[in-house]
Design goal:
This protein is 82% helix and 0% strand. It has 79 residues and is mainly alpha-helical. The chain is rod-shaped, with a radius of gyration of 19 Å.
């Protein structure tokens, strides 16, 4: 029984480490990209708009994916 508790505790710590990595190490750069896109949009040039729109869509999609992954891996969100 103690061994099972130890295993569950270890797995929980590993999962929490993964959630931390996703939350901070992956989402941080995405937030920076989103901010840079916002700043760039203040000074749009004709011709680059389509490219920036596509980059923005991809960054938003990646951000939503990471948020969803984070939510699904976070034990506090378990059903």
């Amino acid at each position: 029984m103690e061994e099972a508790k130890f295993q569950v505790s270890r797995q929980y710590r590993e999962l929490m480490n993964l959630v931390c990595i996703i939350s901070h190490n992956v989402r941080g750069p995405i937030s920076i990209l989103q901010g840079l896109i916002h700043l760039y949009e203040l000074e749009k040039e004709v011709g680059i708009t389509l490219i920036m729109d596509n980059i923005n869509k991809r960054v938003d999609t990646l951000d939503r994916t990471i948020v969803d992954l984070n939510d699904s891996l976070n034990p506090q969100n378990a059903d």
